[in-house]
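In this section we walk through a basic example: taking a raw amino acid sequence and producing a predicted 3D structure, encoded as discrete structure tokens. The instruction is simple. Fold the sequence below.
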Amino acid sequence: MRFSIRFSHAAVATCIASILCAGAADAQLADSTSEQSLQAFARIAEVLRHPRCMNCHPSGDFPRQGDDRHRHQMLVQRGPADRGGPAMECSTCHQTVNAAEGRVPGAPNWHLAPLTMAWEGLSDGNLCRALKDPTRNGGRNMSALVRHMTEDQLVQWAWNAGDRLSPPISQFDFHEAVRRWARTGAGCPP
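The resulting token sequence is shown next.
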């Protein structure tokens, strides 16, 4: 049995046009999503470049401190587990809350980020890619990364730093930017 199907030129043209338009709409949506993602990451990077984050994400073997990011006093070292040396672990001075009388900052689980999470010297694009890379971000997928950046008490301390300079955007706006970045594809600048 043979079937013969005939289409008018108008029907074929309409079909081709709808396919092309759908592809263009998808491309436009992808471009829009990418732009939204890049804008969200630009906001995130403003915070990640701030001393509250950079001081504990150094590329060397010691933490930094203060808004001017000077080397930590008392020659504190990273130590084998990123928590200071055996005789001077971070928790020796840094408790679970800020110590107002001594101006010593504190939050639960105070420690340096591992060297794989060092941000000093990275461009925004490389910082973004490092954040997304489970081999460099503590084994986190995107969902876990969003939770870390929006719920971890040590990360949230940045907005409760006593008389220290706060990050350039509010905690709420940072959380919204992190969620928007993830939701729109977690795009990275070049």
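Looking at the output, two observations stand out. Residues 10-32 have pLDDT under 50 and may be disordered. DSSP finds six helices and four strands in the chain. In the next section we compare this with other chains.
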